[in-house]
């Protein structure tokens, strides 16, 4: 028996060596897998941002994807798990700007070209950290195919996609209210906003009726924008205001006449039921304004200051300064009826957390009506299946109420819009939407430019089999990949979409680094090992329900590793010298009465027969559960067999009535079943019992 089994299993001694063994074998690359592998199984990694480091959600996503890839590889499939990273426009630009700020430099001091050189330097230094961390958790990706969304060939593909839409007339420039980040100085889509509840105020303001001593009272959370009001609106069904529709009010402070109009979109139960209409600073107001031919007066500019349209008294003020000045003026005229406390959701930039300002801006848009129809049909027809199915609702709700996509961004890092005289770059998600097929060689021009794209990858591996990600990007990314694949390739990008659980704190709250409630999986790997970390993550992933995180399950995974190690030690002690290469090679018939005498079935005890029957059933159940993406249940089933049936019961029985062949073969088959879930310890032990093949390419079927 090898001397290393004399001491407890220490993942630090084995994991790096085992990962190096896998990489040197070349078997992460589907082109180098042995045997005639006619069937393919492929996954494209959801590309993490180059700014990122591995978080616990990534770790769960990567662990479950790796279970699938390893399982299918052992089943004889030609497997590809294609990795890469996303350039993450705003996020990366912000990180580099912060670094420059420490040196007292801004991007404007450098200019665009020099700044982009700095970004590329940063990417070269830090951009692959998260991919290296993926290796720590055991991800068996084909690193030779690693892609980046700003690779030269990827840039060529994005250009081709944009011009395809442009020539169809689906890309157009228009001026409309967009979500504007004052800090980043760029537009954002609705999906790039995060909402946070804040304690605010609801001001009830009296608007004087023209030629009357009466008022109509409106309620607003943003009194500074009233300087740009061009109407007051009420619901046509609201009997309180029926006689006022068509009349005019004098806009306080501005003394400008504006009409009272009716619109069915007004909520009668908000405030007084009468609302101010500011078409230049609210998306709904913009629609109401367009339908009623109202002017749009922009009173706040791109840097968050009041414009000349706000009036000489307020011009140049910051928004909050203007709010105080407006309220002071209203109070002096006795036009504030009352003020209520009003907690409400505030839209913030998803990257810098700055309050979003709705502003009119000239931007580039992609028409979405026809693309949305394609995406809806693909799921309704069953070409793409959601797991769990309940997440389809979010997808359909968004697509059925979709607006044209604002694809332009006013930043420097990203794919420049390929039109003369345009400095804007494309929304990061525009390029990410092409990921499943661009990474496989689309289009032909990109393939030629790269000179290194694997021939026939697109034909061989597209559509991919499954994508797994968090529910937060169903519409940001998944839906956009689906309609992009259908538009450019004529086929959906994947067959199954697995929405994995969200990992919450033990008491069910969102994890937060700032609050100290986040979990760093790299710390877990350092403390317990990769297999124990994978075990703890997968063990809790049951039925797609959110996970209330408990480190106790990682500790249990560590104990399970020790149990497996000790079982292997016992089996090796019972194995005659020279038997190493005979392990792990039984055929299916070996488990049946009258089968191969190597397993000694004809001389088997009742305990031998029972464990062989349990092994056969367990292996079948685990395969079925993995195929159904029930990874947690599969691991529970495997754990019960290895810990209870094999270690606690059968090994104890073996001490009384030893059948070394059955003992060795059950261990070998157990290692095969363990490998997709706990690849390091299973491969380590396998190396001591079989010198023919490494475990990752052993046949699952037996």
UniProtKB/TrEMBL annotation:
Residues 17-419, 422-550 form the Aminoacyl-tRNA synthetase class Ia domain. It holds the Pfam family tRNA-synt_1. GO terms for molecular function: aminoacyl-tRNA deacylase activity; ATP binding; valine-tRNA ligase activity. It is found in: Cytoplasm. It catalyses: tRNA(Val) + L-valine + ATP = L-valyl-tRNA(Val) + AMP + diphosphate. Its EC number is 6.1.1.9. It comes from the Bacteria. Residues 608-701 form the Methionyl/Valyl/Leucyl/Isoleucyl-tRNA synthetase anticodon-binding domain. InterPro entries: aa-tRNA-synth_I_CS, aa-tRNA-synth_Ia, Anticodon_Ia_Val, M/V/L/I-tRNA-synth_anticd-bd, Rossmann-like_a/b/a_fold, tRNAsynth_Ia_anticodon-bd, Val/Leu/Ile-tRNA-synth_edit, Valyl-tRNA_ligase. It is an enzyme of class 6 (ligase). CDD domains: Anticodon_Ia_Val, ValRS_core. Monomer. Belongs to the class-I aminoacyl-tRNA synthetase family. This is valine--tRNA ligase.
